[in-house]
Amino acid sequence: MMNRQRAASSFYHGAILTTALVLVVASVTDGVLHVIEFVSMDGRPSVESVTAVGLQVLSPVVAAAALLLLLSRDWGAAARGERLAAGGEERAGAALRRLDEAIESIDQGFALFDAEDRLVHCNSRFREMYPRSAPFLPGTPFEELIRRSAVRGHFAECDPRNPESWIAERLNTHRRAAGPIEQRLTDGRWLRVDERRTADGGNVGLRTDITELKRRQSDLAAKTAVFEATLAAMVQGVLVWDADRRLTAFNQKVQALLELPPGVLRPGLTLEAFLAYLVERGEFGSMGEDFSAGARLAELLNPQGSCCERRRPNGHTVEVRAIPVAGGLTLTTYIDVTESRAAEAQLRESEERFRKLSDSAMEGILAHEAGVITDANRAAGELLLLPAEQMVGRHLNDFIAPEHHEAVLTRLSRREESRIELTCVRSDGRAITIEAQNRYVLHRGRAVSMVSFRDVTEQRQAEQLLRAAKEAAERASRLKNDFVRTISHELRTPMNGVLGMLELLQEAALPEPLRTYTGTAYASAEAMLGLLDDLLDLSKIEAGRLSLEISFFDSAEAAVAAAEVSAARAAAKGLSLAVCVPAGLDCHVVADPARLRQILLNLVGNAVKFTQRGGVAVRLDLL
Question: Which neighbouring-strand residues pair with 428?
């Protein structure tokens, strides 16, 4: 029987000598002290199980404490028993040692006080927990032990300068031994004190270090607070169901979103009852009972999770997600997506309009993210001889000549927005020149570059031809100017000789009409010299170096001189040529006389040349 008891439970063995001088070996099972072997005075062994003195305790260690108390009380009887049974003493000593070793081996602090509240025994763990109560001498009153620690600042709730009220309260708790209490020490530790009365009025207590438990409780409280704050701050309505499909947590958002009266959501509510309530109030419209009892319930409990949208009776659209989480929990979220779905519909309409507009554009249009094409219009595909859908997903550099790859990557890294000209390679291998302009825009929360481009190959070729023609014309103009300057200089020398001879003839005594002819020839020679000057002026004008020589002169004389040059031609055609100057008109002007004479010569000469009959008149007047 003793072997079966040792195998069924944990035993603490002790040995006591009762007043009847009987050696008892006891065990504790389920808080009851059992005598499992005793030896009578005549040394005859017996084995049986009886309840000793009706002692009721809460743990094996407390029962062992009771044994110690009995040992202390009956030690005298043990001494008399020693004279009667030497063998019994040896067995009792061994049992006592085993009991002491058991008490020392436990992780809790153990202390036993007698009926007068004096220390009987404590283990080393108890002494480690209350080092400021030392020394722990047998017979020391409990009050003295706690006072030492109190005045030495060992208890966090006790003011060491005024400990009396705390000591009184602690003594009251100790004497009542009503149940466990918690103590916080000044070194940061927490102890749980569990004290109970023994049958003879003593006090046995266990001290358990619960510092780690307190830390975990604090962490749990903090995490719980964070969890509750997170639930309250979430824009979604949240329901948390346990493995038994019972409600464990929810936030206020779900009550407002589903317009639930107070009290509908409560801890312990089953998922089936919740869905039945929603069906009853018409939440699912025509779905009816099939929703709560059938496929939809199974979908909510799908271990892979689920997501659906439904339209509520108030017209709002709600997205419902069921998310399985660790520990068999299911998280159900509700969010009102009415506005977002309306916005998505508007966005789709806008994108469709944009698609139609871009497809009708003559220029190629494409969108890209970090160089990867996400969309392209019809014109872009036509320019590159590739269907637009086959351009999507490819990089820009797939269509750009290799010599421009580095420039494209640099623009992408800097997110530049400017006009650029590149050489593209079409799908048939032909290179074309494109002119592109890009702008970065936000599309669905992402930065997208919109690029418009057009083929400018023919335009650039035409511009090249124009540049070549312009350069050729400029070369021809330079040759012409060089020729004019050369001719002007070459003709000026003989013309000066002609003028010199005519001047000599004018000074000679010539008869009329030779003198008139000589004067006309001299004027014509001067006009010819002016024409040469005009050729030089033309070269100066083209070179941008023409300058005027301003002076004060008589414009009437200039008009008469111009008419005299053309007089002979007018007479040959039978035309009259006259210069008309109103009486009293002041004909003096400030101008370039050479340029004015040149203008008048051209006007009069053209008038005579293109007039067939009648006459030509040069009239001076004030404007």
Answer: none
What's the rounded Cα separation, in Å, for the pair 224 and 579?
117
Residue 591 near residue 550 (C-beta atoms within 8 A): yes
| More confident position, 20 or 247 | 247
SS3 for 204? strand
Cα distance between residue 466 and residue 460, in whole Å: 10
What is the torsional sign of CA 346, 348, 354, 360?
Answer: negative
Does residue 26 carry a pLDDT above 80? no
408 versus 99: the higher-pLDDT residue is 408
Strands 372-376 and 364-369: antiparallel
What digits encode the pLDDT tens for the residues 248-293? 888 888 888 888 898 889 999 988 888 888 888 887 765 544 444 4
Name every residue whose Cβ is closer than 8 Å to that of residue 465 and which is 6 or more positions away in sequence.
none
Dist CA 513 CA 503 (whole Å): 16
Q: Is the pLDDT at 34 greater than 50, yes or no?
A: no
Q: What is the mean pLDDT of the chain?
A: 78
Percent of residues, the chain, with pLDDT higher than 70:
78
Report the DSSP pairing between strands 317-324 and 306-311: antiparallel
Residue 433 pairs in a beta bridge with 423
Which residues does residue 238 pair with via DSSP β-bridges, in sequence order? 333
Q: What is the dihedral of CA 365, 371, 372, 377, to 10 degrees?
A: 0
d(CA 494, CA 488): 11
- Among 60-64, 322-326, 392-396, name the one with the lowest average pLDDT: 60-64
CB atoms within 10 A of CB 171: 15
Nearest to 527 by CA among 608, 619, 604: 604
Instruction: Give me the residues paired with residue 195 across strands.
Output: 205
**Do the Cβ atoms of 237 and 258 come closer than 8 Å?**
yes
Give the integer Cα–Cα distance in Å for 230 and 622: 97
